[in-house]
Amino acid sequence: MSKAKETIEMFIYQKLRDSILQRQLAPGNQLVESVISDKMNVGRTPIRGAIRKLADEGLVNIVPNRGAFVIQPTKEEIIQAYELRMELEQLAARMAVPHMDETDYEQMRRLCDEEGETIRQADIRAYLRINKAFHMTFIRKCANLFLIDFAEKLIDQTNIYLVLYEMVFYRTTAQTAPGAAEHREIIRLFEEKDAESAGTKVRSHIANAMNNLQLDKVRFSNLENIF
Q1: Long-range contacts of 5-14 (CB under 8 A, 24+ apart)
Q2: Do 177 and 103 fall into the same domain?
Q3: How would you label 83-118 residue by residue, b for 16+ Cβ within 10 Å and e otherwise?
Q4: What is the pTM of this model?
Q5: How far apart are CA 86 and CA 79, in angstroms?
Q6: In a domain, 195, yes or no
Q7: How confident is the model over 20-61, as pLDDT tens digits?
Q8: Domain of 63, in residue numbers
């Protein structure tokens, strides 16, 4: 691919990705190549490349003979993903306690501080990155490679649901990150080496995140208004 096509593909990819992450494109919205092509005055090849990148990230579903659509998980799928995440992270937290030390606690405290800034900046992408880092800090300490791998994949999947349906980033009065107080309580329980309570708190924290999703209250735009 030429440099020019790479640049166009990356621009389209970033534009569509930002539109999904910023909730301008609704779940289930079709990414019609002809609409993008007409708006951008470009051929289909870079558009298809951009859409494939989005599909690789889990933000778009490509349906054979139908087209590409912004991911639209069902309520049941969301609940199933969160329920499995609760089980895995509760187990990981209990297993991690004997292996954690002050370096881990300090890193988690620093991440809690950074979370608050992401809320003040209304930067959901930074929040998701920092939130994942917080959880992966103790998950990696469980010393089970399979559990670490599966838990990380579930975090990435549920982060997509947060992008689509979490409302706190769109409330101008929000001053604290979702679950920030719970994160600090989790750190305290790790410091006390209370494996059972730490696991239970992690589980309830994830359940609260699921319950805070607003599956029918988000307002979206359409593809024609994006480009």
Answers
A1: 5/45, 5/46, 6/46, 8/40, 8/42, 8/46, 9/45, 9/46, 9/47, 9/49, 9/50, 9/53, 10/50, 12/36, 12/40, 12/42, 12/46, 12/47, 12/50, 13/49, 13/50, 13/53, 13/54
A2: yes
A3: eebbebbbbbbbbbbeebeeebbeebeebbebbeeb
A4: 0.79
A5: 10
A6: yes
A7: 877 788 889 999 999 999 988 889 999 999 999 999 988 999
A8: 3-72
